[in-house]
Design goal:
- With 206 residues, the chain is mostly helical.
- The chain folds into two domains: 108 residues, no CATH class; 90 residues, no CATH class.
- Helices cover 78% and strands 0% of the residues.
- It has twelve helices and no strands.
- Helix 2 packs antiparallel against helix 3, helix 3 runs antiparallel to helix 5 and helix 3 runs antiparallel to helix 12.
- The relative contact order is 0.13.
């Protein structure tokens, strides 16, 4: 995959960074070390500021679209779509959705959403934050603002990490990919275990 980008985007690295930051789960966590890696781009490597801007803009592009789609599905979904997608989504993020839909002050709820997005770890970020926000009663412009703040700090943390270890940017990229893969694998196994437990409970009830 890295060779594909290096061969096809060497003259427009900024576009490669934007495209990578659009990928769910990966987002700016991978896009920033990717854009700043001299081992991949050589002389075409982007500066930290340009990489930060491209990754930030790219990761924010899906925000309103995801929130709007989730709210449309929630309000007008068929039983099939609701059962297969929204119910599982609500179960996965139930605690966070409950906190953001509680009677606490709006500023507190927006702060929680921003902090969730700001943590540069797998299963957090703009996509996850937008999905969760779409299932709450927060106003879209408020949720968008909170997610923007969270995405800004997430990009800032990753950019500073790459600047501090500028000679190890490729290793940061590889380590980030491995961590994301392990998180996704762990999440998959947890889902299988929960599914198996629910089947056993149904069998016992019958």
């Amino acid at each position: 995959m890295l060779d594909f980008f290096a061969d096809n985007f060497s003259s427009c690295v900024f576009l490669a960074v934007i495209l990578v930051s659009l990928i769910p789960t990966i987002e700016s966590k991978i896009a920033i070390p990717f854009g700043m890696s001299e081992a991949i781009w050589g002389d075409a490597t982007l500066s930290p500021i340009v990489t930060f801007i491209c990754a930030f803009v790219g990761s924010m592009i899906p925000c309103l679209i995801v929130m709007w789609c989730v709210r449309k599905l929630k309000n007008k979904a068929s039983g099939f779509v609701h059962d297969k997608f929204l119910v599982k989504l609500e179960e996965k993020y139930k605690k966070r959705i409950d906190k953001l839909s509680s009677k606490n002050k709006t500023f507190y709820k927006l702060s929680l959403l921003a902090m969730f997005v700001a943590v540069p770890l797998p299963l957090t970020g703009v996509y996850a934050g937008s999905l969760i926000a779409g299932l709450t009663n927060l106003k879209m412009w408020q949720a968008f603002l909170a997610i923007t703040v969270g995405a800004f700090f997430s990009c800032l943390v990753v950019t500073l990490l790459c600047v501090l270890f500028e000679n190890s940017t490729l290793y940061i990229l590889i380590a980030s990919l491995i961590i994301i893969a392990l998180f996704l694998l762990f999440d998959f196994f947890v889902m299988l275990i929960k599914k198996h437990k629910s089947k056993k409970e149904i069998e016992l009830c019958n």
